[in-house]
Design goal:
The protein is an alpha/beta fold. It has helices at about 45-50, 95-100, 155-160, 165-175, 190-200, 215-225, 235-245, 260-270, 290-300, 310-325, 345-350; strands at about 5-10, 20-25, 30-40, 60, 65-70, 85, 120, 125-130, 140, 145-150, 185, 205-210, 230, 250-255, 270-280, 300-305, 335-340, 360.
Length: about 350
């Protein structure tokens, strides 16, 4: 039967979030109810709150989550009650043109739960963030959004692979194809940028250059694997990257800010035939202007990275295993753990740059 649990709701544009009682229905065919153990506070949740994604309020926020499957609906075979899972927002269909061409990480028909969770007080349907809605004691998702991983990993670090950390690591490893001996520059050292640095280090890059305007973030970037740092507030980052790479530029430049100015820096900071990866998320009004001759003459690749071009069933278990082996320290991404009633304060702390990730622990 349906259950009533607590969840964090964004009721309207720029309104403070609040805890409400929500109704979670029994899972239908292809669905699962997951008991949430931890969920990271991501900038995407803030974008939902601010109306930057849609106006389909009220939103049930939270999506970087890990927990235990409580129940499943008819036809579900990949996960079962008791499985420890990371939730993902890329439940691949297996049937679209991308999946049939062997590129499921580009799936064009990812799916969510068919049923809706609702407010207990009014019966109003909720819009779960990225189809997940995990700032809640329990949530309803499509079973394909559940990726089973080793239960030996802490939920508070495992959940971060559900979005930001995977986006950054995947931007380096999957999209950028960083390899042994490469030189890599990462512009923007927030959570995603730091994850890209960790991914480049994990892939064996010989030199990883972190670029930001905040010395505190650059210090954190060093702990993630950066070999060099550049404060671009007073230094031309393009010239600095070239100087650190023998005058050539980096093999791969990852732009983790999502602004035209920083994208141009990434474009000119790469070596000839190098790769630019855009993983920072721009806003709809932003425009980019580049001389087409430079685009042609410099060669190489200009790529966008969606969710780190990850395949959750492949990448989540691998990265959890690397963490448990001591080769990928995911604990470094967790600045603080908080309760459900502290999500609004966590959004406020995002603006100060003092936190890499706040994680709600239930």
């Amino acid at each position: 039967m349906a259950q009533e649990v607590r969840g964090v709701i964004a009721p309207g544009k720029d309104e403070p979030v609040r805890i409400e009682t929500i109704v979670v229905p029994d899972p239908g065919p292809g669905e699962a109810v997951v008991s949430i153990q931890a969920c990271g506070v991501c900038h995407t949740d803030l974008h939902y709150k601010q109306g930057g994604i849609s106006d389909d309020y009220p939103f049930l926020l939270g999506h970087e989550a890990a927990g235990v499957v409580e129940s499943v609906g008819a036809g579900v075979t990949d996960v079962a009650p008791g499985d420890f899972v990371i939730l993902n927002w890329r439940a691949v269909c297996g049937k679209c043109r991308a999946c049939l061409r062997g590129r499921p990480w580009y799936c064009f028909d990812t799916h969510n739960a068919e049923q809706k969770m609702t407010l207990a007080s009014t019966g109003q349907e909720l819009s779960p963030a990225l189809g997940i809605g995990a700032f809640a004691e329990k949530t309803l998702v499509a079973a394909g959004q559940c990726t089973k991983v080793d239960p030996g990993v802490s939920a508070q670090v495992a959940g971060l692979l559900g979005c930001g950390v995977m986006a950054g690591i995947g931007a380096a490893i999957n999209t950028g194809n960083v390899g042994r001996g490469d030189t890599v520059a990462v512009i923007g050292c927030g959570g995603v940028g730091d994850a890209a640095i960790a991914g480049a280090h994990l892939a064996g890059a010989a030199k990883v250059i972190a670029v930001d305007i905040d010395d505190r973030k650059l210090e954190t970037a060093r702990s993630m694997g950066a070999t060099h740092t550049v404060n671009s507030r007073g230094t031309d980052p393009v010239e600095a990257v070239r100087e650190l790479t023998g005058g050539f530029g980096a093999d791969v430049v990852i732009e983790a800010v999502g602004r035209p100015e920083t994208y141009r820096q990434a474009f000119y900071a790469r070596d000839l035939a190098g790769t630019v990866v855009l993983v920072g998320v721009p806003t709809p009004e932003m425009k980019l202007e580049l001389p087409l001759l430079d685009v042609f003459g410099r060669g190489g690749s200009l790529k966008s990275s969606w969710y780190g071009d990850c395949l959750p069933s492949r990448d989540f278990p691998m990265l959890v295993d690397l963490h448990l082996q001591g080769r990928l320290d995911l604990d470094k991404f967790v600045t603080e753990t908080i309760g459900l009633d502290e999500v609004e304060k966590a959004f406020e702390r995002m603006h100060t740059g003092d936190v890499l990730r706040s994680v709600v622990v239930l």
